[in-house]
Design goal:
The protein is 33% helix and 31% strand. The chain is α+β, with helices and mostly antiparallel strands. The protein has a single domain, classed as Lrp/AsnC effector binding domain/regulation of amino acid metabolism (RAM) domain (Alpha-Beta Plaits). The strands form two sheets. Strands 4-5-3-6 form a four-stranded antiparallel beta sheet. Strands 1-2 form a two-stranded antiparallel sheet.
């Protein structure tokens, strides 16, 4: 949502950050991709995996994390989660919560879309 500067108050909250006008832009959250491996406990209770996924989505939402997708996979890992968080600390809190339940071992990477990668490349010296 873009709001004309003339209707903005002195400071505007964008996502989790406060900006003085006119610096406020629509705040986009960082994207993360987490791969999962079931623990022995998680495999023994595999019948509850969808319930646990729903519970994680709800807990993550309360922390300010938006779970985009949860996948169950074949191959080198058992699942993957794609989610957005306002910052690394919030993402870490959600994943510490997930790991502390003992059903999966998460491994997470910060993901960058094409526009974000363009900004990163723009910072390289030429």
């Amino acid at each position: 949502m873009i709001v004309a500067a003339s209707v903005l108050p002195q400071s505007v909250k964008c996502g989790q950050r406060i900006f003085e006008q006119p610096q406020c832009e629509e705040h986009s959250m960082a994207t993360f991709i987490t791969t999962l491996k079931f623990t022995e406990q998680g495999i023994k209770a595999i019948g509850d995996t969808r319930k646990r996924a729903d519970a994680f989505k709800a807990a993550a939402k309360k922390m300010g994390v938006k779970v985009k997708e949860i996948y169950w996979t074949l191959g080198g890992f058992d699942g993957a989660i794609v989610f957005e968080a306002p910052d690394d600390e919030t993402a870490s809190a959600a994943l510490v919560h997930l790991g502390s339940l003992g059903n999966v071992q998460p491994t997470t990477a910060r993901a960058f879309n094409a526009a974000e990668m363009g900004k990163i490349l723009g910072k390289l010296s030429k």
